[in-house]
Amino acid sequence: MKKFGFIIHPLELNDLARKFPFSSKVPDSILEKIIRYLPQVKASHVTGLSSKGGSEAEGWLVGCTLTAEQMLTMPTKKVLKQIINACKKAERLGARIIGLGAYTSIVGDGGVTIAKNLNVPVTTGNSYTVATAIEAIRLAAKKLELNLQESNLVVIGATGSIGKACTKLLVKEVNNLTLVARNEIKLKEFTDSLKKLNDGQNINYSTDINGVLPKADIVITVSSAIDAIIDAKNLKSGSIVCDVARPRDVAKQVSKNRSDVLVIEGGLVKVPGEVELNFNFGLPPRTVYACMAETMILALEGRYENYTLGKDVSLHKVKEIQALAQKHGFKLAGLRYSEKEVSEERFKQVRQAVSST
Ligand SMILES: NC(=O)c1ccc[n+]([C@@H]2O[C@H](COP(=O)([O-])OP(=O)(O)OC[C@H]3O[C@@H](n4cnc5c(N)ncnc54)[C@H](OP(=O)(O)O)[C@@H]3O)[C@@H](O)[C@H]2O)c1
Fold first, then answer.
1. Which of 9, 171, 329, 345 has the most CB atoms around it within 10 Å of its CB?
2. What is the pLDDT of residues 28-66, one digit of tens each?
């Protein structure tokens, strides 16, 4: 039996109630202080994972109690110490490889320091996250009969680990590409390097999200912002928005108020076998985030090695993990948003909007 660990944490204070029901009765200001000092805990035992080829694995979800905001605002050293402690707990439980969920891979250097402090290897899960985000975009474009080449693609969070790799993989397939983030220096550097390698292509950058959205046919949004950064009113009618970020970049009302826009979640994966996570992520049965799926795939394959580490995702690994996912029976969990599969009716509405633009 292969063994893995995966580190989780509450994105916001409300999420704590999934493991600690009492927390919903504690005022936020007090809860925020308490969770800085809570020990890292085993959140669940994952059972029943078996691949298409017959290999089996079990795992442990270990919880770090800090929220996304705390991970970004507390001193990095303190946050890393808590994440390393959570990983050590997974190590003691028997994990032979550990995946870093949500902000535990964002804080600091993308897992490098964490890996140096452990006896077992680590992966951020970002390679498979990139692969599934692109697969979801291609599938959505096909459903809407939208020609990728003729589309204006906007990548938000384009200088980040996932955004950069998505951009590099799609740059040759679109005529117009706009990169968005806050730091203009990094944006310019990345844009210049892309232009050098892709002569003649129209590649721009901007720090103004609202300024670029009205012209975007396809948006991949994968920022590390704590709050929603995409507002319904700025989206082009007939556009596709693939939201890979957790917490989400797309404001909740977009899906409700804009029936002419297709919002999908990137990075959701259907797992083979009768897997029981024994933890409520608010996802359908046997469905996990791609970063967790990457950890499971590496365990099933017996690839106990530091896989996706640091801020630069290797495009070779994106392809490799996609092939391994196929081999073990993992696949994209369809096109979903807000805990539901996108309905045929919705595709029809957005297709109509595309044809009238
Ligand atoms: N679905 C999944 O399975 C899965 C797996 C892994 C990660 N994720 C999620 O993916 C997201 C990104 O992860 P990552 O590892 O790529 O993070 P990262 O390397 O830290 O990159 C974050 C990017 O977002 C930009 N950014 C941050 N705040 C912004 C804002 N307010 N407006 C515009 N851009 C902003 C950053 O650039 P500037 O600082 O210059 O703005 C950077 O380009 C996170 O939400 C994470 O939880 C999802």
1. 9
2. 888 889 889 888 889 999 999 999 988 999 999 999 999
Please give the distance, rounded to the nearest whole angstrom, from the Cα atom of residue 54 to the centre of ligand 1: 35
Question: Ligand 1 center to residue 11 CA distance, Å?
Answer: 13
Residue of 129, 156, 162 to mutate, ligand 1, most atoms within 8 A of C-beta: 162
3-state SS assignment for residue 62: strand
Q: Give all domains of the chain, ordered by start, each with its CATH number.
A: 2-125+271-332 (no CATH), 128-267+334-356 (3.40.50.720)
Give per-residue pLDDT as tens, 298-319.
999 999 999 999 999 999 999 9
Taking Cα atoms as reference points, which of 254, 227, 228, 252 lies closest to residue 240?
Answer: 254
202-206 and 336-337 beta bridge pairing: unpaired
Residues 6+ apart with CB under 8 A from 279: 8, 18, 19, 43, 44, 61
What phi and psi, each to the nearest 5 degrees, are found at residue 273? 80, -175
Q: Which of 165, 172, 173 is nearest to 127 (CA)?
A: 165
pLDDT tens digits for range 77-95: 999 999 999 999 999 999 9
Ligand 1: residues with CB < 6 A are: 102, 105-106, 125-126, 129, 156-163, 181-183, 186, 222-225, 229, 244-246, 266-267, 289-291, 311
